[in-house]
Write a structure and sequence with these properties.
The protein has 714 residues and is α+β, with helices and mostly antiparallel strands. The chain folds into three domains: 190 residues, Aldehyde oxidase/xanthine dehydrogenase, molybdopterin binding domain (Aldehyde Oxidoreductase, domain 4), CATH 3.30.365.10; 163 residues, 2-Layer Sandwich (Aldehyde Oxidoreductase, domain 4); 307 residues, Aldehyde Oxidoreductase, domain 4, CATH 3.30.365.10. It contains 16 helices and 29 strands. Helix 12 crosses helix 13 and helix 12 runs parallel beside helix 16. GO terms for molecular function: oxidoreductase activity.
């Protein structure tokens, strides 16, 4: 077999990730040394720098640092010589691994990244062992060198670049022992932290290109509305204004991550400030369309009507309800409002539509999907669309959607110049996409002598939902989730923890309600249900290393109880509230400690315990759980998106506030030691925040609150 054919056809890891054909280079040692690219993840430069092409987006969550720790350990690299670069969107290079969401970054890349780095390490060791005439088994890689245990010699990776091209990776790669890890399991500061705090890290907002102009779009405030006519005479007279462009609407596609561009008028100018100021002079008459008269009450009413049509889903795990007669049923209804993502860095992108090629610079959570969408939008072949992924100041699911890139590409296509489009803060709140309104109904069925038989659940959403896994050991009869027909009133976005949020809100609140009905302590009730739960039927692939285990959730609860000093009664005017959630194979228990005085709520402390398998970076895990608690408290206590006459009423942080530092409780995060495969932590901490607080409020006051947001306590 020819070497180049072997390298092109050999695959490893999830999704058939290919070894790069760039591994071999023509020439000899007397020629200039070329960089060595053993695979699409990494490249070793002649100066010893190891360039890591990170397929995951970096939106502040720190995944790129955790992935670098994995690569550095398996490769044996010098940490200080690693340079992280976000990979351009490429399904060919990174099939199935470039979407950043669902807390999947570490979980998806743990195995393929280890394998890629271990293969490169083996090839470096083979090259060094031949140079020294020693056995490969007597060599190891560490700190950017290959070392010989027999001769005590060492050689830098870069000195092997002209030799390693002749080596072949073996089919059976041995990973490093955990005892040899230098980086995995350590709280290492992010590679980019210094640049972030000094303002020198380049975001898409910072990208500047020759001949670039700036854009501001005034979008129809009612989704589905269109421009009827407009007058731009005053705007055109403003200094620096280059062109006024009307944006035609693009509907939301079945895959609602793409499309959804609103009708509007764009001002193109020689600075962002001039574009914004000129846009304020536009006189636009809108045809608001069918949604102009709608408000959230229309949605609420339709949800009530949909309740009559729901039918149980037949089959599936836990669908077989006990035949014992039901003597009593208790029920509760929980509601979640619309929420905005409110990223600290507003949406922005730079696009250059050259006619034959489109180049984009954007902090996107979906570079592959964005690339495919831009190719579809422009009619260009995929090879002619380049997506340069940039660091972003928060995403929370909103940057997974392509509309803010589509707009920039459309405008650049009108002028054939690079265009930087910047959404204002008001744009990101009032004419964006939103976490949808949702209603959860929960029922508990009791037999004779108050014997608990099981649950029923049904949900109503403006976005179709798959339920998170249910790990409690009593049967549950799932019901269909009903998608509201008014789904186009507000376009839907992903949001940190997505539909696990309303599910967790309802389930963990109702667990307490059932416990109180049965006269049991809420924490003890959960431990009882989790103790003997058999959830093996929920594991779709018995060969997968990721398996659901109720006992792991139980252990997080037990640990949280011990660490928090939990009691079921009030203590010095304070009360505890409990929640426990499994999200994407990570397990998280919260215990909130609150007090209520004269109707004023004070959240004093959160004690949280997480089992996310093997911990790559403890500090980052704790940071993500802390951020999740702040995120969840903001959603519960600070406000929501409301709609009147078809338009969002909120516009900025004055009427869509975030939790302030002074309002943030003490947070104590504990990590469970585990030999399980690593899983994500960006979202598992969110769904249980609200119910833990609501349960604590009930224990403090006897008042059961079931609707978010909680702006006051009666």
């Amino acid at each position: 077999m020819e070497r180049r054919f072997f390298l092109k056809s050999t695959s490893f890891g999830a999704g058939g990730l290919l070894i790069s054909s760039c591994i071999g280079f023509m020439g000899c040692e007397t020629e200039p040394v070329e960089p060595w690219e053993p695979n699409f993840f990494l490249r070793i430069m002649p100066d010893g720098t190891v360039e890591f092409s990170c397929p995951q987006s970096e939106i502040g969550q720190g995944t790129s640092t955790g992935l670098t720790q994995i690569l550095a350990d398996e490769l044996g690299a010098d940490w200080d010589k690693i340079k992280i670069q976000l990979a351009d969107g490429s399904f060919e290079k990174f099939p199935g691994t470039q979407g950043t969401g669902g807390s999947n970054g570490i979980r998806k890349l743990w195995e393929p990244l280890r394998k890629a780095a271990a293969m490169a390490r083996e090839m470096l060791i083979l090259a060094a062992s031949k140079k020294w005439d020693v056995l490969p088994v007597d060599c190891y890689a560490k700190d950017g060198f290959v070392h010989s245990t027999k001769t005590q010699l060492k050689i830098a990776f870069e000195e092997l670049l002209s030799l390693v091209k002749d080596e072949y990776p073996s089919e059976d790669i041995a990973y490093k022992k955990e005892s040899d890890y230098q980086y995995i399991g350590k709280s290492i500061s992010g590679h980019k932290n210094k640049k972030i705090v000094t303002g020198s890290l380049e975001y898409s907002m910072d990208v500047t290109l020759p001949n670039m102009i700036y854009a501001r779009i005034v979008r129809c405030p009612v989704f589905g509305g269109v421009v009827k006519h407009f007058n731009a005479d005053a705007a055109k007279k403003m200094p620096g204004v280059i062109k006024i462009v009307q944006i035609e609407p693009i509907p939301v596609f079945e895959n609602d991550f793409v499309g959804g561009v609103r009708s509007g008028i764009a001002v193109l100018a020689d600075s962002s400030w001039r574009a914004i100021k000129a846009s304020e002079l536009l006189e636009i008459t809108w045809d608001y369309g069918a949604n102009a008269s709608l408000d959230e009450n229309a949605i609420y009413n339709e949800f009530e009507e949909n309740e009559k049509a729901v039918k149980p889903i037949e089959g599936g795990a836990f669908s077989d309800f006990p035949n014992a007669p039901i003597e009593e049923t208790i029920s509760a209804r929980y509601t979640i409002p619309y929420q905005a993502n409110a990223c600290m860095e507003p949406l922005n992108s730079v696009a250059f539509h050259k006619g034959y090629e489109v180049e984009v610079w954007a902090g996107t959570q979906s570079p592959q999907m964005t690339r495919e969408r831009i190719a579809e939008l422009t009619g260009l072949p995929l090879a002619s669309v380049i997506i340069h992924n940039k660091f972003a100041g928060g995403g929370f699911g909103r940057r997974f959607f392509t509309d803010f890139v589509e707009e920039a590409v459309i405008l650049s296509g009108k002028v054939r110049r690079p265009v930087k489009l910047i959404w204002t803060r008001e744009d990101t709140i009032s004419v964006s996409k939103y976490h949808p309104y949702a209603v959860e109904y929960w029922s508990a069925h009791l037999g004779k002598n108050n014997i608990f038989l099981g649950f029923s659940n049904k949900g109503y959403f403006t976005r179709a939902s798959n339920y998170p896994s249910y790990l409690y050991g009593k049967p549950i009869r799932f019901h269909e989730s009903i998608q509201n027909s008014a789904k186009q009133l507000l376009p839907r976005a992903s949001w940190r923890s997505v539909m696990a949020y309303p599910w967790g809100f309802g389930m963990e609140s109702f667990m307490d309600e059932v416990a109180h009905k049965l006269g049991k302590d809420p924490l003890a009730f959960r431990l009882e249900l989790l103790g003997g739960a058999d959830v093996s039927s929920l594991n779709r692939n018995p060969e997968s290393p990721y398996q659901l285990e109720a006992i792991r959730l139980r252990k997080t609860l037990e640990t949280a109880s011990q660490k928090s000093g939990y009691t079921k009664t009030t203590k010095e005017g304070r009360a505890f509230g409990v929640s426990a959630i499994m999200y994407n194979y990570s397990y998280c228990a919260h215990i909130a400690e609150v007090s209520v005085k004269e109707g004023q709520l004070k959240v004093h402390k959160f004690t949280s315990v997480v089992d996310c398998g093997k911990v790559i970076n403890p500090s980052q895990v704790k940071s993500q759980i802390e951020g999740s608690i702040v995120w969840g408290l903001t959603a519960l206590l600070k406000g929501c998106i409301t709609v009147k006459e078809g338009r969002v009423e909120q516009s900025n942080f004055h009427d869509y506030p975030l939790l302030r530092y002074s309002e943030t409780p003490e947070i104590e995060v504990h990590l469970m030691a585990s030999d399980h495969m690593p899983t994500g932590v960006g979202e598992p901490g969110v769904p249980g925040v609200a119910p833990a607080v609501l349960n604590a409020i009930y224990n403090a006051t006897g008042i059961r609150l079931r609707d978010a947001p909680v702006l006051e306590i009666p």
